[in-house]
């Protein structure tokens, strides 16, 4: 049975935390690949596309930071983690931010 991992509410998004999460090149590369996909996707597929060459623990850390910043929604389905950018939530709180940072 799928279960959503904890994430912040839209009201608790903090611009400093969001920008800090996006400042790290590895996380920004993951977010750029996720941003290109409008559908939820297995996190392993995004890691392959981003081709970062990082260890699994480092990748897990990056996904956790992105989730805790409110940038992504993660759903656990067995051993798989399905991720999706929280576009509407981010747009509601910080209009144009993701487009400016990830499409630049």
Task: Please characterize this protein's 3D structure.
It is a single chain. Helices cover 54% and strands 15% of the residues. It is α+β, with helices and mostly antiparallel strands. The chain has a four-stranded antiparallel sheet with strand order 1-3-4-2. Helix 1 runs antiparallel to helix 4 (56-69) and helix 2 crosses helix 3 (43-50). The longest helix is centred in the middle third of the chain and has 14 residues, at 56-69. The N and C termini lie far apart (38 Å). The model has no long low-confidence stretch (mean pLDDT 93).
Summarize the structure.
With about 100 residues, the chain is α+β, with helices and mostly antiparallel strands. The protein is built from 6 helices and 4 strands. It has a 4-stranded antiparallel beta sheet.
Number of strands: 4
Total of helices: 6
- What about the largest sheet? 4 strands, antiparallel
The dominant shape is globular
Binned, the helix content reads 40-55%
Distance between termini?
A: 38 Å
What amount of the residues lies in strands?
A: 15-25%
- Compute the CA-based radius of gyration: 13 Å
Which class do the helix and strand fractions yield?
alpha+beta
Mean pLDDT: 93
Which segments are poorly predicted (pLDDT under 50) over 5 or more consecutive residues?
A: none
> What is the H-and-E element order?
EHHEHHEEHH
Task: Enumerate the strands of the largest sheet in spatial order, edge to edge or round the barrel.
Answer: 1-3-4-2
- What assembly state would you assign to the polypeptide chains in this entry? single chain
